[in-house]
Amino acid sequence: GRILPLFRDLDSSLQKAGIKINFKAYVSLTVFTTFLIALATLAFIPCFLIFAFHMSAFPAILFGIGGSLFTCAFSVIGFYIYPIYRADKLKRELEDELPFTTGYMAILASAGVPPEKIFYSLSNLSVPLAVSKEAKNIVTDINLFGLDVISSLEKASKRTPSEKFHEMLEGFISTIHSGGNLAAYLREKSRQYMRLKRISLKKFSDTLSILAEFYISLLITGPLLFVIMLAVMAMMGGGTLGGILAPDLLLNLITYIGIPLASIMFLIILDTVSPKW
After folding, report:
1. Average model confidence (pLDDT) for the chain?
2. Are 119 and 199 in contact (CB under 8 A)?
3. CB 98 within 8 Å of CB 31
4. Where are the beta strands (DSSP E) in 65-168?
5. pLDDT of residue 270
6. Is 128 left (phi over 0), alpha (psi -120 to 50) or beta?
């Protein structure tokens, strides 16, 4: 009961991410998994350092405690960020697909297909798209829960993490209410989203060049210079750094832990900023 208020923002994130897990169950899973990971880390790190690197017991235990606290924090942050990441990924996928989705919907509307059948068609696309999942939820609300098309679209509009998709659905609803030309509305939205997509692709090309320079500087040149420096220190018998870490131990930590983790973080950043279409 005391822990749940700390994660109160997660309830909305879980719904927007489309993760069909109860809020309380997700928080319980977070706490339980974090406890197991922290316990395993506390046991593994000292044993690994003692047997693999012949480190004395006291600094190995200190590393174990530090590693346990780090993995504990990392686990909680990971569980907290995961729904936000999923929601953001779904948002980007929906917005990347919008120019083509609205164009497809405009073609169906021009042929006289009713609104509920448009979303039924979107839900049965052979290509796996994010909009298909949203359309399936809309169709499920209509066929299984007995909602009318307006109510199901309003529900989807409130649930979606994408402001653009929300705006499109609200305009779709307003056009139905007012008896307007749905095909003309969708064609105009398709042209609008295509213009925005061209602008976003231009911005992404600029961002990609910055990320390439960042990768070369911090993940290729920087570690290479650091590894050379530590290798020279180890050959010259440079002692320990801070009285605990020997140069060869630090070299192994950077090579087998630091660089892979930094590369994974870079891939996550690249996936976050890159468009899917």
Report:
1. 89
2. no
3. no
4. none
5. 83
6. beta
